[in-house]
Amino acid sequence: MATPTFLPEFLRCKCVATRLRQRALTYSMKGRKIEISKLKTESISALTDGVTVYLNKKDGFTPEFEEGVSYVLQKYALSNAFGQIYLFVGAGTLKFKTVPQTVTEEAETSARQALCPTSQVMSGEEEDIFAKEGYLSLQGHIKEVCSVRMTGTHVPILDIQLQCGQKLFNVSLWRDEALTELYVGDEVILTHLRPCMLNNGQGKFHSSTYTSVKIPEGQVEDIEVDIIAISKINDTYHFLSSDSFMYIVPESIFSGNPDVLTDKLPMKLVLKHINCRVIEIRSSEK
């Protein structure tokens, strides 16, 4: 990032929106599993003076500026990085709240776009999809999931194949998104993907800092089951029901002693799951 430039004049601006972002700074290996070892939380504010958009970053959960509030600033600093202007507030900055500033809808839209750009929703059937500019969103079913691996720069990456209609796409999820628990058969919505063409002429999608992995509504099911057997493979538990369905239980959902549960079998539980992948366990009320 460029060296901040301090400006003597006043800046009158409006905070249009704020965003909380949490991202991993470092990752570590726990056995064969990649985990986040250090997490950073920052609050980002998008401001506009009606013409120029400014972003401000502050560590922690509380943003420097309040959404919808107008300010007058003095003794601030600006820095231009990758075409985006960042506003820095220091100990000597004078920050005054003032009467509401009227800005155009276009100026507010630009501020929101700087905070989180629009991601065009694609069906996957577009012939020119890899020639599209900006960020793209895809919805489809996962056909293949590779093991998460760590790059030479100690960043996790997960390669998947996503089927959208009749098309099959290769997608690489980087950093935090690579640690998302995904399984073959899951229906997912991937936002803010970057299309690119490889040297072999094949197209591929990469995640970005704005990418989110969403599960469409309707996939999550609540079901009461009789568990008759339990096994543990690596860090994952498998619950076998009386109707011969096997439910996968990640360590993040249950990490207790399996022998304790085995002694209670058969056991009636309410499982919230996606394609037999458990995301919540509750005791049966019966």
Layout: helices, strands, pairs:
Layout: E1 5-7, E2 11-30, E3 33-48, E4 53-59, E5 70-74, E6 76-81, E7 84-88, E8 94-98, H1 105-115, E9 119-121, E10 135-145, E11 149-150, E12 156-164, E13 167-174, E14 187-197, E15 203-206, E16 213-214, E17 220-233, E18 236-241, E19 246-249, H2 258-262, E20 267-274, E21 277-283
What do these coordinates show?
This protein has 286 residues and is mainly beta. It folds into three domains: 5-115, Beta Barrel (OB fold (Dihydrolipoamide Acetyltransferase, E2P)); 119-214, OB fold (Dihydrolipoamide Acetyltransferase, E2P) (Beta Barrel), CATH 2.40.50.140; 220-283, OB fold (Dihydrolipoamide Acetyltransferase, E2P). 6% of the residues lie in helices and 55% in strands. The protein contains two helices and 21 strands. The strands form three sheets. It has an eight-stranded mixed β-sheet, with helices on one face. Strands 10-12-13-15-14 form a five-stranded mixed beta barrel. It has a five-stranded antiparallel β-sheet with strand order 19-18-17-20-21. It starts with a strand and ends with a strand. The mean pLDDT is 88.
Please give the domain count: 3
At the third CATH level, what is the topology name of the largest domain? OB fold (Dihydrolipoamide Acetyltransferase, E2P)
Work out the helicity level: under 10%
Largest sheet: 8 strands, mixed
Number of strands: 21
What count of helical segments does DSSP give?
2
Per CATH, the class of the largest domain reads Mainly Beta
Q: What is the approximate shape?
A: globular
> Could you state the CATH homologous superfamily of the largest domain?
Nucleic acid-binding proteins
Distance between the termini: 60 Å
Mean pLDDT: 88
Our Rg estimate from Cα atoms comes to: 24 Å
Main-sheet strand order equals: 1-6-7-4-3-2-5-8
Percent strand: over 45%
Annotated CATH architecture of the largest domain: Beta Barrel
- List low-pLDDT spans: none
Helix/strand-derived category reads mainly beta
The ordered H/E elements are EEEEEEEEHEEEEEEEEEEEHEE
